[in-house]
Amino acid sequence: MRKALALSLLAIFLGGCASDPTDRDISGTWINQAAIDAAAKGGPLREALQAYGPNLEWDINTRAGQARYTNGFENVDGKLLGEKSGAWKVDFYGSSGSELSRDGKQLLQAATDNEPEQVFDRARDAVPEGAPVGASFERALYSAYMGGSWKILSGSGEGSTVQFQPDGRVDGLPGADRYALCLAGDCANMSSGYDSLWLQQGGQGSSWIFARKGKQLEIFQAINTSLADEQPSFTPSTRQWLLEKQ
Question: Rounded to whole angstroms, how far apart are CA atoms 212 and 99?
Fold first, then answer.
């Protein structure tokens, strides 16, 4: 009798765990870790983002009924509708919606006619209060793709050590104290299929083309091949730096 009662209590306990609403809660910030992991292997950045994108980060507040995402170019706000059978619908005010659900510790975005299925992980590192959507993905990407120490093998400052910080600061690269990787949008359209980044010192900056091959990073001057009345189209010119990750 006692054994039967114990088994009944165990079943109730396990049943309660299985239906725990926190298992389905999707509130919080979720980033496209698969794209970051692919980029961190040391290949072209845009290839990794295109293979696992297009969306890079979701920021969700179930209590307020709000969901927003970024693809690196657009920041889109949506209305989070009620949960049904473990899935949440997101309405984007007239445009096609999305369906989100939990799969253990991951957030799943269901495939649509316009986008493939995507998987997101919770952001691990906190960003400053008020940071825009996408800041968590950007920090994680910068840390994985550009983190560590780099030695200048050739170019201005040869022999020096360069460090690209997750918050967009760069130390040791002559003529630059800030950087930003191009993720999508106009900067990608204007770089003729190449990876590009923005280097800035003080309030002045410009676009550069870069190529990542394993532990080596080449940074080229970007030359505009378009006419004055056309959208800029940048291609690599003289190599300014060759860096190697230490």
Answer: 35
Q: Out of 12-16, 24-28, 190-194, which region has the weakest mean confidence (pLDDT)? A: 12-16
Nearest to 45 by CA among 148, 151, 173, 182: 182
Q: What is the per-residue pLDDT for 171?
A: 98
Q: In this structure, which long-range contacts are made by residues 126-135, counting pairs with CB atoms below 8 Å and at least 24 apart in sequence? A: 132/70, 132/75, 133/57, 133/59, 133/68, 133/69, 133/70, 133/75, 134/56, 134/57, 134/70, 134/72, 134/75
Q: How far apart are CA 161 and CA 157, in angstroms?
A: 9
Q: How confident is the model at residue 97 (pLDDT cuts 50, 70, 90)?
A: confident
Give CATH for domain 23-143: 2.40.128
> From CA 67, how far away is CA 89, in angstroms rounded?
10
Q: Which two tokens stand for residue 226?
A: 């378009």
Give the pLDDT score at 243: 98
Neighbours of 162 (CB within 10 A): 22
The span from the CA of 182 to the CA of 180, in Å, is 6
User: Are 106 and 121 within 8 A, CB to CB?
Assistant: yes
Q: What pLDDT is stored for residue 206 in this prediction?
A: 96
Residue whose token pair is 């396990």: 14
Q: How do the domains of the chain map onto residue ranges?
A: 23-143, 148-245
Beta-strand (E) ranges in the chain?
28-31, 57-61, 66-70, 75-84, 87-92, 95-103, 106-109, 118-122, 149-155, 161-164, 170-171, 178-181, 195-201, 204-213, 216-224, 234-245
